[in-house]
Amino acid sequence: MLKACYSPRYFAKTHTNSMEKLTAVADVLRTEKMVELIDPGIIDAEILKRLHHPQFVEAFLSGETAFATIQGFKPWNEQLRDAILSVQAGQLIGAEIALKEGIAANIAQGFHHASYESGAAYCTFNGLALVAKQNPEKRIFILDCDQHGGDGTAIFTNRMTNLINFSIFGIRFGCKAGERSLTRYIHPKQGNFDLYREAVFEAFQYASRWETDLIIYQAGMDCHQHDKYGSKWFTTELLFERDRIVFEMAKKMKIPLLFVLAGGYQLLDDLVPLHVNTFKAANEIYFPKKG
Ligand SMILES: [Zn+2]
User: Fold this and answer.
1) How far is the CA of 148 from the centre of ligand 1 (A)?
2) How far is the CA of 19 from the centre of ligand 1 (A)?
3) pLDDT per residue over 111-135, tens digit each?
4) Separation between Cα atoms, residue 220 and residue 144, nearest integer Å
5) Residue 174: pLDDT above 90?
6) Which of 41, 46, 87, 186 is most buried, most CB within 10 Å of its CB?
7) What are phi and psi of 257, to 5 degrees?
């Protein structure tokens, strides 16, 4: 059965639904018996201080300065702090399971806008770069299919040679190309799924050539046609197809994969089924029903 890191601690009430959707998704997955949920515990803050500027980590832990809410979640509270610390533990445990078993999930976002000095755009600590930092002997390839580019992750690729970021996005929102930061822009109106699929294939070619040990797949749902940031051609069916292709390629190429939820800005009733679909696609590919 597909293993997914999650804890009720992931839930946090903020002015957006972004930390509430995690629990909403996990509840469906539990009811439908689609995953085995694994509580990852809470990360040791010292680990985060190796990834981010220690002062920024301290500020977030104490909630004392404006730095603590720089990512946009206001006001700071202990529930949010514990949610973020649990989610980051889930990244590391999820990566460990994926490396061992080939596939795993963390029912959380990768927080790809967070850079070394600070959080940004509802991303506190970068859980994608975290895996590379904690596994220096492994080559970590981020396949970022959020509608926004992973600018924070791109900055981290300059600090770690075992990290590559490959962003496929439809909004030109600060994702720089660089030596280990690759970007593919697919136009939200004039683009189409053929171009998107091609970009995904290209990502896998890179991942394979680079002898990637682990792919972390950001299965963003803000590309959906009804999302305020979405691409008008990106239907629910095509998003499912995207997820299916990613899982199929990773499985065929025998590259372990950890997947996370990433962005999505519709009401929970519309958004949760989209995220649940990613788990459905993973189950179809990795745990097909016999008969
Ligand atoms: Zn996004």
Assistant:
1) 4
2) 14
3) 999 999 888 888 889 999 999 999 9
4) 8
5) no
6) 87
7) -140, 130
Hey, what domains does the chain have and what are their CATH numbers?
A: 3-287 (3.40.800.20)
Distance 39 CA to ligand 1 centre (A): 26
At 74, give phi and psi (nearest 5°): -130, 145
Distance CA(246)–CA(204), nearest Å, equals 9
Q: How far is the CA of 6 from the centre of ligand 1 (A)?
A: 21
CA of 271 to the centre of ligand 1 (A): 13
Cα of 20 vs centre of ligand 1, distance in Å, is 16
The rounded mean pLDDT for the chain is 94
Query: Looking at residue 291, what is its pLDDT?
Result: 60
Give distance in angstroms: CA of 288 to centre of ligand 1.
Answer: 30
- Which string of DSSP letters, residue by residue, matches 198-265? HHHHHHHHHHHHTT-SEEEEE---TTSTTSTT--TT--HHHHHHHHHHHHHHHHHTT--EEEE-----
Dig out the tokens for 222 from the structure.
């803000």
- Residue 175 tokens read as 């994702």
pLDDT at position 177, please?
85
